[in-house]
Amino acid sequence: MPSVLTPAHRPLTLQAWRDYDAQACALPGMSLGRLDLTGPPDAQADRLWELGVRRVEFTDEIDLTTVDSPDAAASAVRQLCLIRDLTARAVLVHWRLRLPAAGPDDDTWRDLSHLQPPTALTGPSDADAALTQWRNEHYLCKCLWRQGPGFVQIRDRRWGDLRRFTADEPAYREAIARLSYGAPRSAVPESIATDFLAERLVRRTGPLLWWLPYRVNRWIQEAMAI
Asked: What is the dihedral of CA 110, 226, 219, 216, to 10 degrees?
């Protein structure tokens, strides 16, 4: 499925290492240096894994307060989708996130709480408390989806309890494919977009919607237990 995020966008720059541990990463041969990613977004996590990358650091802060233009939204979505895909592979990701200013009862940061926690968070009224909670409650497989024979199932624990959704209509599977790396709301049927937004399975970033759950590549226990 073609993505709105094409190689024409500026390179996404990362620092990469071959190990999770900071001390091990300081050893000779463990750093892969600066990598500029320009290929299709759906292949970037696989490419990094095959290169031996186990730890990355994003150069720029992901700023969701400045995503009104299509180009800015596409850049932010591209980075967030890569973090999602790297989280699915259990790659350690260092990144910084700026959200729109929010009041004490706003929990929109939880939409992203299945991703590896950022190293810095700005926007929530008590950003330090939100980030601490994100770190303390994070684990692999917190919000995932899988495709079975003729159905899609999503299992979401971002709010503590298990919320499970199953869709067997082909239109839902097609919508997930279209939204996987960002697309305008008009790219999917309005009723499906409304359903996904209501369950907070997609996130609006500027003029784009993008799919939040990941297809896990590294199970923490037997798949049936997840």
From this structure: -50
